[in-house]
Design brief:
262 residues; mainly alpha
Length: 262
């Protein structure tokens, strides 16, 4: 029994040592790059309690989310943004943490890949953003009119006070699916009394269920992102189930497109 504890202790110590050495190496590499580029240390967010616990507490109050102390750099400097998005794009990446965090929900794609894989995803999306398609507002007008018809009216015939968040989500979903997949899920039909499934597109995928699952996954990802490297501590049945629903929903359209293209 004691030998097991010794082995476990050695394993933990080895892991801690490797993590520490890796961090030191990365810090020295970043320091050398900063010196070469003439970078100054970024301003730090001041805190009154060690480890920034007072800031984390304020995050708890503001967002009622979980978080761990970590380091993040925010910038609005035009030169920094130009370097990150253009001139030194190859020097930056999404990183393994974001990739592993987002993978259960988004899978392989432009939001989770780097390098050649990212370029391939961008090439697949590029045809959807040609000027002729973006400037054609007839498609958008169709779905905007559907949203206007979905607004609740009071006895006088005027629109009543209502929460527009759900309607805007459905508008975005209808526009995005039309824009990217060539066929809209017409989720606003659910508000107008229509069918709640996409059966007209060759299957029976519940749009309302997808909307709820997508929203749930987004909240989980926001939570997990605040945990940074410890994102894996936030995992649960609700998150995994919602990921399966959203992936199944998208798979339906991919399979439909493949059948029509074959």
């Amino acid at each position: 029994m004691e030998s097991k504890f010794v082995i476990f202790g050695l394993a933990c110590a080895t892991f801690a040592f490797c993590v520490t050495v890796d961090k030191l190496i990365q810090d020295r590499k970043h320091a050398a790059t900063a010196a070469r580029l003439g970078c100054q240390p970024p301003p730090r967010l001041r805190h009154r309690v060690p480890f920034g616990l007072d800031i984390i507490y304020e995050l708890f109050r503001a967002d009622r989310k979980k978080s761990l102390n970590t380091t993040a750099i925010f910038t609005i400097d035009p030169n920094n943004l130009q370097a990150i998005l253009s001139t030194q794009f190859q020097d930056f990446s999404l990183g393994t943490t974001r990739r592993a965090n987002f993978m259960p929900f988004l899978g392989h794609g432009i939001f989770t890949e780097d390098g050649d894989e990212w370029k391939q995803s961008r090439a697949m999306l590029r045809p959807h953003f040609v000027r002729s398609q973006i400037s054609d507002l007839r498609l958008e007008e169709t779905h905007v009119q559907s949203m206007i018809r979905a607004l609740p009216l009071d006895a006088s015939g005027w629109t009543a006070q209502d929460d527009l968040q759900a309607l805007f989500f459905q508008l975005t979903l209808d526009l995005a699916t039309s824009f990217l997949w060539g066929k809209s899920v017409n989720s606003q039909n659910t508000v107008l009394g229509g069918d709640t499934t996409t059966s007209s597109l060759g299957g029976a995928v519940d749009v309302i269920q997808f909307g709820k699952a997508f929203d749930t996954c987004s909240k989980w990802l926001a939570n997990r992102a605040r945990m940074h490297d410890a994102y894996w501590l936030l995992d649960g049945k609700e998150f995994r189930k919602s990921c399966k629903i959203t992936r199944r929903f998208v798979d339906h359209f991919v399979e439909t497109a493949m059948r029509e293209g074959s």
